[in-house]
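Anyone up for a design puzzle?
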């Protein structure tokens, strides 16, 4: 009809498949969780929209030949790990290392909280996953979205979408998944343990030197973790230096918010029906949950050991904050402790373990990259 091809008008309708419809429904579920349930809305909402866009047949948003917006974003700021690093700058600017520096013993809980990463790595290998995929699945146990994305993007980029969604989804479900494990592995008496908070004072000099020393030490010992730890410590130094308040506030707000938005859109758009509607995806969901549970259990069991060694002066619940999931895990420990005794305040102790867990997850990610030569 005079050069007009009406078939293009209905090309999308003709190309849609049941797989597309199912994944669009998955995107809708994430939108529901973000909006109605308020589970990690800042990330699940853009991921949900990204999934819907990524599963629209012939969408020009993701068409490589047409240089679609999300393809351009993926190449420019995700494939080179820029957005996870920018998010870490913002996370670092929101962290307070005073509880950890005042009570260094909680660094051990942050280390124990990474046990599930390596336990799940071994299990995934036994189940037949190649080493790079097994490592990418294991890092889900850190419950640290940016680290999971950073590691998966280098080791198994074809699994980036599902790894990111699983990591952030489980992160949003910390208040659902952790309490049963915490109560199963501790007694009422242990949960009621009071801990005095009279820490030694931390000087401004120590707060400034800490991010610098950690960056140098980790950068030398685990070079593969250097970008992540440097971004995290840069954000913290912006905050603690007290001389660049605008940069600190921008990192905590505009930078991290915009980065999270674009990262969610791009990650969601990679979750296509062809790549995710496989039995392997279900295996990743189960193994990720196992990693989360094992990390939590290892932290609590180590907390029980410290409870005994300290003469019943350390509340074992603190170990549950040794996973990354900052600051939700620390706040949850306080909530569970107060359910047994409302006068029990262990928040600052838990935050010490929680910040240690954040550092531990970054180092664990670097160790995996080093072991696999990434």
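Challenge accepted. My sequence:
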């Amino acid at each position: 009809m005079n050069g007009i091809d009406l078939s293009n008008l209905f090309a999308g309708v003709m190309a849609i498949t049941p797989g597309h419809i199912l994944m669009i429904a998955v995107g809708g579920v994430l939108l529901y969780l973000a909006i109605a349930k308020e589970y990690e809305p800042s990330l699940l909402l853009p991921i949900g929209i990204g999934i819907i866009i990524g599963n629209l047949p012939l969408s020009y948003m993701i068409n490589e030949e047409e240089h679609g917006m999300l393809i351009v974003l993926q190449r420019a700021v995700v494939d080179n790990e820029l957005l996870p690093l920018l998010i870490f700058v913002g996370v670092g600017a929101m962290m307070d290392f005073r509880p950890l520096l005042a009570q260094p013993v909680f660094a051990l809980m942050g280390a124990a909280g990474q046990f599930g990463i390596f336990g799940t790595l071994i299990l995934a290998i036994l189940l037949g996953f190649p080493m790079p995929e097994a490592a990418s699945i294991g890092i889900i146990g850190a419950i640290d979205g940016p680290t999971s994305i950073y590691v998966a993007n280098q080791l198994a980029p074809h699994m980036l979408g599902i790894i990111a969604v699983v990591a952030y989804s489980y992160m949003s479900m910390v208040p659902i998944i952790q309490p049963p494990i915490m109560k199963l592995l501790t007694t009422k008496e242990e949960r009621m343990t009071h801990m005095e908070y009279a820490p030694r004072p931390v000087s401004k000099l120590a707060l400034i030197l800490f991010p610098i020393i950690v960056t140098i030490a980790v950068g030398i010992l685990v070079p593969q973790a250097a970008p992540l730890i440097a971004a995290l410590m840069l954000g913290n130094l912006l905050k603690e230096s007290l001389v660049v308040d605008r940069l600190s506030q921008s990192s905590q707000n505009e930078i991290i918010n915009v980065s999270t938005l674009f990262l969610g859109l791009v990650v969601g758009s990679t979750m296509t029906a062809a790549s995710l509607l496989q039995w392997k995806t279900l295996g990743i969901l189960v193994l990720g949950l196992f990693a989360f549970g094992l990390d939590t259990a290892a932290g609590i069991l180590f907390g029980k050991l410290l409870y005994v060694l300290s003469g019943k002066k350390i509340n074992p619940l603190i170990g549950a904050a040794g996973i990354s999931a900052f600051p939700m895990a620390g706040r949850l420990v306080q909530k569970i402790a107060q359910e047994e005794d409302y006068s029990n305040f262990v928040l600052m102790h838990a935050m010490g373990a929680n910040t240690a867990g954040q550092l531990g997850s970054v180092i664990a990610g670097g160790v995996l990259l080093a072991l696999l030569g990434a």
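A detail worth pointing out: Residues 80-371 form one domain.
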